[in-house]
Amino acid sequence: MKAINQLPLAVQLPDDETFSSYFGQTNQVIVSQLKQLILPIKFPNAVNHGAIIQPKIKSVYMFGQSGVGKSHLLHACCALASDENKSSVCLSFSELKHLSVELLEGLEQIDIVCLDDIQLIQGNALWQQAVFDLFNRMIEQDHLLIISGDQSVQQLPLTLPDLKSRLSWGMIAQLKPLTDEEKMQALQGRAKQRGLVLQDDAVKFLFNRLSREMTNLIACLEKLDQASIREQRKITIPFIKEVLGIKPI
Asked: Which residue from 84, 65, 87, 110 is spatially nearest to 19, judged by alpha carbons?
């Protein structure tokens, strides 16, 4: 796709952030809805209190606090689309906001466009207008636009009323924080994907000694994985203390 090739960004998706690696039941209704929007024929029975997602929905605004898995689900949407030979791209405003708004030109040719952390363009009139214009072009092309943010549409610090209005047009989904038990299951599941065995006592130690935000826990798991491969050692509590520099209380 020409539009993707022109993007001077790292658009490679994390290979471990798919729907199958999004653990826990807290947000599974939203997961099911996203699957159906991407592949309505393959996932025809996604329901929310008995209401099936309508095919006419062509935009999603997904919001929640840091660590609930917004980026993970955006990456999962693109991974599922790719598996079914649909074109997709996932971009973050943490990178986009420093670049030219011309990067959004032509993205309406893509089946599914995901934009992460829209709150980062607050105070930037050019980017807000560019996203609004892309929104309109995506609808005209009958393609799907999925945007994430950290607050509800009403609370978003955006100054372009038309953009906030567009965000309210389609499906709005609030991601809830996972329970501690779900986070533990998620961490062990991500470890298993990497071929690691993370015993219950090791997981509990991490939860008791580190921040319980999932982004931080996954980053620590990455560090432990690399050290385990390098030193050919199992992930035990003494190994965790050594690698992460955790001192005795």
From this structure: 84
Question: DSSP letter at 119?
Answer: G
In angstroms, the CA 77 to CA 34 distance is 7
CB neighbours of residue 46 within 10 Å: 18
Which has the closest alpha carbon to 194: 240, 243, 235, 152? Answer: 235
Query: What does the alpha-carbon distance between residue 80 and residue 131 come to, in Å, rounded to a whole number?
Result: 24
Helix, coil or strand: residue 2: helix
Beta partners for residue 174, in sequence order: 63
CATH of residue 233's domain is 1.10.8.60
What pLDDT, in 10s, does the model give residues 38-66?
987 666 555 444 444 555 779 999 999 98
- Indicate the pLDDT class of residue 242, thresholds 50, 70 and 90: very high
pTM (2 decimals)? 0.83
Domain holding 135, by residue range, is 2-174
* Nearest of 185, 240, 233, 230 to residue 210 by alpha carbon: 240
**In a domain? residue 249:** no
Q: Are strands 112-116 and 47-48 parallel, antiparallel or unpaired?
A: unpaired
